[in-house]
Amino acid sequence: MRPMVSWRRSPTADHGCRAPGASLGPSPGVDHPRRSVEQVKQRILVLGGDGYLGWPTAMYFSRRGHEVAIADNLSKRGWEAELDVEPLIPIASLDDRIAAWQEVCGPRIGSFVGDLTDLDFVRGTLEDFRPDTIVHYGEQPSAPYSMIDAQHAAFTQVNNVVGTLNLLFAMRDVAPDTHLVKLGTMGEYGTPDIDIEEGYLTVHHNGRSHRFLYPKTPGSMYHLSKVHDSHNIHFACRVWGLRATDLNQGVVYGIETDETALDPRLATSFHYDEVFGTALNRFCVQAVAVEPISVYGRGGQTRGYLNIRDTLACVGLATETAAAPAEMRVFNQFTETFSVLELAQRVRDAAAHLGIETTIAHAPNPRVEAEEHYYNPRHSGLLELGLEPHPLSEELIDTMIERISAFRDRIRPELLVMGVRWAPERPAPERPAAEPVAAAPAGASRQDRA
Ligand code: USQ
């Protein structure tokens, strides 16, 4: 059965919303430049375009004159309902967002509502839209969600891996020259005790050398799904000659982009709950709610982080400079590394300057992860393409706290701790057989007997 689609070609009218520096060049056709200096108009399909990053990405490209369509099955909204969580800032339906974007900015963003695990839907979407670039965020994105139980782990891996496999087969058959820009994760690497390279590692063994995908030791069933994706994409490039860029992204923080700021109806989905919220975003909400900032364990867990605006810039750079046929290019997509304790301290200090006194709580770690470790990941590829990072500043944390404060009444503290654990609690060690105790006198309390 053919998918339900609502794609319409966008009008060319410019309603004064064009981003600074955007140019409307000719379509790139089949020959993607390896290092383009000039932005050319492309047809860009954003998979997962209703999500935290997908929606701002769709607007970012639309504002720069590209023809943009979203494909999404709206399942994130379903997972939220399943767990009874909701984004801090109310977000409009996909149709209403698209209508608001057209009203505010002019171009129409197309939409295809369907599931990537449905091969017919994926093929039909590619045939109808004929994208030059596919930006793929269309996966279950939460590590805790994948660790709830066996069903959620299996769902996450089937959803993510099968969706991406369908995409690769559909690209092979109907769009072999399209460039895939796939969102992977820095968590694929884990925290090995050696430097992390950008995607590949050359191994010297018994006098010979070979360049392999960098070995992965991911920390959750979700992160594992991205490892499987990377291997499948690498296979599709090697064997079918597809072109792909795998962006191993760190933890993203922030609420606002240049486009979401244009109108309240264009807000993106910002989570603070334990399952879909991520470290810095959660810490800012905890500060506003005057709840202790939840550092898991000792807090030495170090990760790469980036501002949501830099996510858009990185995806933009990857889209403008396609990988070559048969190449899987890999970039490590983050701008700075922090331990969670450092992040918590920065939020606590910024909040204090705004007159909010918060504390840091070293909660028992619900995850199984190293709390002190070596961490030195390379991340030069996107900088070489021209990325100009927005480093984390106190001003940015202040701005986040102020924006969150406007929605203080919607914060539900019970969502900050939901109890997902990476491993069952170990049973208490068996106690040695108790010595026989003399019968307690009648009327003694339980405590007296202890
Ligand atoms: N952490 C805390 N306290 C909290 C929440 C998290 O100490 O309240 C710690 C975690 O234990 C972990 C670190 O902060 O060590 C990062 O956790 P997170 O929840 O911010 O991010 P994570 O689960 O790793 O996943 C997020 C996104 C995922 C993306 C990944 C990038 O949800 O989609 O792939 O960041 S990365 O972490 O680089 O793998």
Structure description:
This protein has helices spanning 54-63, 75-83, 94-105, 119-129, 143-146, 150-174, 221-240, 279-288, 308-320, 340-353, 381-384, 394-405, 446-449, and strands at 43-47, 67-72, 110-113, 133-136, 179-185, 200-205, 208-213, 243-249, 251-253, 293-296, 302-307, 328-333, 336-339, 360-363. Helix content is 33%, strand content 16%. Mean pLDDT is 90; it is low at 1-13, 23-38 and 436-450. It has a single domain (43-415), classed as Rossmann fold, CATH 3.40.50. Helix 8 packs across helix 12 (394-405). The chain is α/β, with parallel strands linked by helices and 450 residues long. It binds sulfoquinovose-uridine-C1,5'-diphosphate. Sulfoquinovose-uridine-C1,5'-diphosphate (USQ) binds next to helix 8, strand 10 and strand 11. Sulfoquinovose-uridine-C1,5'-diphosphate binds next to helix 8, strand 10 and strand 11.
Task: Jot down its keywords.
450 residues, alpha/beta, Rossmann fold, 7-stranded parallel β-sheet, 3-stranded mixed β-sheet, 13 helices, 14 strands, 33% helix, 16% strand, disordered C terminus, binds sulfoquinovose-uridine-C1,5'-diphosphate
